[in-house]
Amino acid sequence: VIDFAATSHFEPDWRLYGRSASDDTGPIIALLVALDALDSLGLAPTSNLRVVLDGEEEAGSPNLVPAIERYRDKLTADLMLILDGPLHQAGRPTLVYGARGNVTMELTVFGPRVPLHSGHYGNWVPNPAMRLAQLLASMKDDEGRVVVEGFYDGIELSESDERVLASVPDDLEGLERRYGFSETDRVGSSLQEALQYPSLNVRGLRSGWVGSEARTIIPDRAIAAVDVRLVAETDADA
Description:
single chain; about 240 residues; alpha+beta
């Protein structure tokens, strides 16, 4: 165990272990240390800063959204800096110009009133899990591009945009090895280009039972939890 408070030398491979020890605590501490450094030098920030700490982000920020509506005049700003995001594989501090928004939904396909025995009713009673799988599969092509009409409307990348995106030193092969997959979706030609488009993600599925609890039944329902990451050109209501 290292007494961080009593040491002035820090080895680069020392680690703090704990929930949010680096994300999001690391960036927050970096900001506060920068403000302390300015203060110690007798320098005042050249802009007015409002620091908002949201301890409920992973729960969907249920109190932050109404607070923004209530205190809109106090929170008006020219720029918002969000202290969040993964450490870049280069190990260097990263500033990302923009963050995708989020719309969530649940899709439920209903089958019979109660689960039914597949030996007695299979081939006759429709299976909601299969119907939901077909519905979700119809939303994307084989390369992972969303085929819902208008989903990518208004997004145009210029040659200069593409040069900037290509200049980011991403280790794409290293990321594939780290996360354990061999083929990417092809919404963009790179990770950075893909992030410029809205995404449609199935974040969870539930229907029937699996593993040791599996039963030979036609489920009564199937549920998909979906999130859509929005970009500036994407109209959330649409």
